[in-house]
Amino acid sequence: MQKVYLTDVILRDAHQSLIATRLRTEDMLPACAMLDDIGYWSLECWGGATFDACLRFLKEDPWERLNQLKAALPKTRLQMLLRGQNLLGYRHYSDDVVRAFIVKAAENGMDVFRIFDALNDIRNLKTAVEAAKATGKHAQGTICYTTSPVHDIHSFVTLGKGLAQLGCDSIAIKDMAGLLTPYAASELVKALKDAVDLPLHLHVHATSGLAEMCQLKAIEAGCQHVDTALSSWAGGTSHPPTESLVTALNGTVYDTGLDLDKLQAANAYFAEVRKKYRRFESEFTGIDTRVHIFQVPGGMISNLANQLRERNALDRINEVYEEIPKVRKDLGYPPLVTPTSQIVGTQAVLNVLTGKRYESISNEVKRYLLGGYGKAPAAVDPELQKRAIGSEELIECRPADLLKPEFEQLRQEIGLLAQNDEDVLSYAMFPEVGKQFLEQRSTGNLVAEPLQLEETLVDGVKKAPTEFNVALHGESYHVKVTGTGPKNEMLRHFYFMVDGVPEEILVETLDEIVLDGGTQGAVKSNISSKRPRPSAEGDVVVSMPCNILEVMVKIGQQVVAGQGVLVTEAMKMETEITAPIAGTVKAVHVVKGEPANPGEVLIEIVATVE
């Protein structure tokens, strides 16, 4: 008898894949008694993007969520997704931070740590696996599945053997993009079963429409653990439905033993809950067979569409799809999973929008080519590497070996805002967002983004959300206003659905008016539209909407062509903007923290006169 055990991702990856990780704890807790009574092997409920979303959008303490879920699910293992040395952030952390995070996660209720590295560099998994084992919890090593000229059964089996040698309790095959095919799944499971004596888990997204077939072939080949999602949150960029697999295996040697009536009751609850989150639904979360051509995971597709729409370049998305495999090849075929999916995707957008490949190279690509994320699966393009990092010495060791212990320094930086070690770790994961969350908590100003438009009364009648079509630069968009956020000083958040995709606009109010002789004068504000339009060769501009992270020059400063003058952030990736010419900085039209858009002069440089 080879019973199959299920891990349901309803509390993490299902809503991360379908509604941008917006499911609130208050909508999880009422279902926990039902979920706890089903008999799952585990429930995935934490990690991935949930930590970021809790702090950034939901204004929830992610540690408190974990505590509450553990209390509400006493009979069921809780599982999380951990990015190895990256933990839940986008950079490598020192070993003392990695160990502290895992200890605190275990203390707050985590039972199973699914640990992966975006490059499948096993050196980046070692500290996290050892730390999880030291807590007495389940350490699950992960193989990030992808396809390329250098990824094959042999390479995955070699990684599997390495994970076993690290002391992992089980191995997960993580197919984040839905690239597995049924017979490839069968072959991989058989090869791993022959090579390592550890339980195998299969995590496959349904993006390509092949996931259910992959699950069945993997089970027949000896995989006893499979990830599913309750059907109301299944399919497309999420996972195959739990109830369907239970039904398919019922009465066979693989019977899960789970009760369909209990599953249906839990699913009915979540079907109703999903209706509350309509404004986060996206047209890019259904089946998309293009993933096998462009290897673009579903989550990447929606991000890319948003970026291109902001640039009024959504019609160029097919160019970006075609560019992504080229960038991936140049970078040595990294699997496309956080953070490498963002690194590759953002660089592809830059290449398309600038009209010249690698005219602008993100800081993350430079760090990647330097070896700052680990060892690339294959050789990188030597010309690109030279262009990006020049003669800098490559990092050949495990990147974290170069990091000094930093936990105590982080504690000092955040100071009294941190009430415990968990708060320090929240700040470590996302310094800006984490600090803002702790500041707002300290003043009692934590306000979650709205689920729907604030109701207003006009002549005693409730007004429905505004819905309209708009034509802009020859393109037509369907816009529905879905909500407004709280006003914060001069800023106000507005939420929209644009062609079915959720968008957020930050509006700066115009309430500083200078009156001159009874007539309206100038508006005193930092609205980006007041910046000049580019007209000279020394004007510094950006190629896509972004935020300013750092201004590196001052008025009157001498610069050389190619010198860094700004650091920007878009799609959570940083890019250094360089001086187009040598000369003197004449004007700086931007400060740290401001948004910037294409077509605006951010810095003016006057050419040096010979």
Describe this entry's structure for a reader.
It is a single chain. The protein is built from 21 helices and 24 strands. It has 610 residues and is an alpha/beta fold. It has an eight-stranded parallel beta barrel, surrounded by five helices. A four-stranded antiparallel beta sheet has the order 11-12-13-14, with no helix packed on it. A hairpin with a 2-residue loop joins β13 and β14 (501-508). The model is unreliable at 510-529 (pLDDT under 50).
Summarize the structure.
The chain has 610 residues and is an alpha/beta fold. Helix 6 (95-107) runs parallel beside helix 7 (126-134).
Over all CA atoms, what is the radius of gyration? 25 Å
Categorize the overall geometry: globular
Q: Largest beta sheet: what is the strand line-up?
A: 1-2-3-4-5-6-7-8
Strand content: 15-25%
Count the E strands: 24
> What is the structural class?
alpha/beta
Terminal CA distance reads: 84 Å
Low-pLDDT segments: 510-529
Q: Percentage of helical residues?
A: 25-40%
- Biggest beta sheet attributes: 8 strands, parallel, barrel
Overall mean pLDDT score?
88
Helix count equals 21
Which key features would you list for this structure?
610 residues, alpha/beta, four-stranded antiparallel sheet, 21 helices, 24 strands, globular
What topology does this entry show?
Blueprint: E1 5-8, H1 13-19, H2 25-28, H3 32-36, E2 42-47, H4 50-58, H5 62-72, E3 77-82, H6 95-107, E4 112-115, H7 126-134, E5 138-144, H8 153-166, E6 170-175, H9 182-195, E7 200-204, H10 211-220, E8 225-228, H11 242-249, H12 260-274, H13 291-294, H14 298-310, H15 317-330, H16 340-354, H17 363-370, H18 382-389, H19 407-414, H20 421-429, H21 431-442, E9 457-458, E10 461-462, E11 467-472, E12 475-484, E13 491-498, E14 501-508, E15 513-516, E16 519-523, E17 539-540, E18 546-551, E19 558-559, E20 564-570, E21 573-578, E22 583-588, E23 595-596, E24 603-607
Parallel strand pairs: 1-2, 1-8, 2-3, 3-4, 4-5, 5-6, 6-7, 7-8
Antiparallel strand pairs: 9-10, 11-12, 12-13, 13-14, 15-16, 17-24, 18-20, 18-23, 19-22, 20-21, 22-24
Helix pairs in contact: 6-7, 6-20, 8-9, 9-10, 14-16, 15-16, 19-20, 20-21
